[in-house]
């Protein structure tokens, strides 16, 4: 059991003063980064428990960081969160997570809950395209709580973001489908008030135009990132008189639904219809008919988001800088779209 | 930006004392209803924000509930969380989630973070078998914060839990393998200081004994619930002189690793070796070689956990009751173990 470890025990072990230990644990800027990290590591090794609540009331810091995602049960968001954790835990922060299920009222509720929980920052992938008109959200912007968007963002003055180049990801996937000989490429889109879906749509459209193919707006349908929605939307496309010969989906989940529906119609993939998704969820690789998709480096995205947060939280007194980090996507070509044998 | 409005600003505007403002905002009965309403209206007009933390400290309710899981990127835990949310959101609660990655220091850190965030209860699936010896955890038990275990539990006096009958799930899976003609069934176990893994081991063992087969302890290996660990452990089994003809894994992830390793050894599934996992993760169904597994009704488990929490939080003044809810598992038979064709 042993008695409770105090800052005096840590000071004794490291042969420094208790005041230095206290300052280091409280991120006082007078302490060198090296000392701070040594103190935090030693405190952890000795199982020192700070009275975080007392600390929070005093310093205004809780060392909790809130992360808001549309859903946790996608490898993409889970991997981003892992990246965030990997970057923040060694700095003494804890990560608490909320999911919105793409519901506006939950998104706002989550923001309020995290603010009530006194988080030091909010890292979020937005669900609600009209977020900036909400009072709670305006309120958040007025506070000095760092807010960073990742993946699903809105361009809001003063808010940093980490995203991938969705336009390029979509362009590359569409170009690949064209290279396979596809001429009528449909696009399963999503709420284009969200930038990621708008940019995927624009990348898809540009690839079609650049290749001299006819752009047919009737082949673009907005749907939700769910398997069942993918099936329903694909049914509409397959029932067309002049049905598409390829589907580029802005989501792996709708791509999976598309594949199920195409099979149910007795059509062959990729011979009759090629399919490509977006996000490189692990199931796209493990499927019997593996699915072409666009990788978004989610762990890297999480790490970078956390780094931007750390910069902001450590510079809160200075002029607020806004940072836009953009990662490059990578196309993963698999069976669902590989009509032509390469090699 | 503007500076933060305080009770002194409100007092000045209304020409009353700050103490009166404070009493009015905190529903002190000494204040007249007219004054109370005036103060609240003025506070709203001035965009005054009460310190919710201070408020939470006083009223003892934040309407935030903390959920701690080993990992969010498994369908099993994500589904439990969905069940919890479905039950709690309509009651006005918000759910905030932490993951431990099976690390003891993160588990303790998460408990502290959630307590600092003033949650009204903690629902958790434990990672650390020695949890009850930890000071922070003892501290939690002493507080009046409802704590409920789900799935991974320890028997701790006064702590309710919702689990499935792991013994029966493992017994049924093992019996199925025996029915397929398997005689040397290995078991990929996990930390048996955790009850779920102990009970799966006991169910497996009992089925072997009940069928008059020889129980060989050398065929039981403890490993971690990860694909790569499953591969490593299976390699040990396949290199045995008298290798097993079936593997029952306490995790779908290690079962997947086992399948990869068996294939890498040029052996056939199920002809040479049958494989069964546990948890019914979606990939077990979608795999080219679908994997036999045990379903644990995770959404139901989450809903029941939330219900137990609601009972406790609404009865906190009464004598503390302890509830143990046990669900019945269901065996899902798939290709990885189906040697004999059933019609």
TrEMBL record, chains A, B:
Short name of any one Pfam family annotated for the protein: LacI
InterPro entries, sorted: HTH_LacI, Lambda_DNA-bd_dom_sf, Peripla_BP/Lac1_sug-bd_dom, Peripla_BP_I
GO molecular function: DNA-binding transcription factor activity; transcription cis-regulatory region binding
SMART domains: HTH_LACI
Domain of life, per lineage: Bacteria
Domain named HTH lacI-type: residues: 5-59
Lipid biosynthesis among keywords: no
Sorted UniProt keywords: DNA-binding, Transcription, Transcription regulation
Designated name of the protein: LacI family transcriptional regulator
Organism: Yeosuana aromativorans
Lineage of producing organism: Bacteria, Pseudomonadati, Bacteroidota, Flavobacteriia, Flavobacteriales
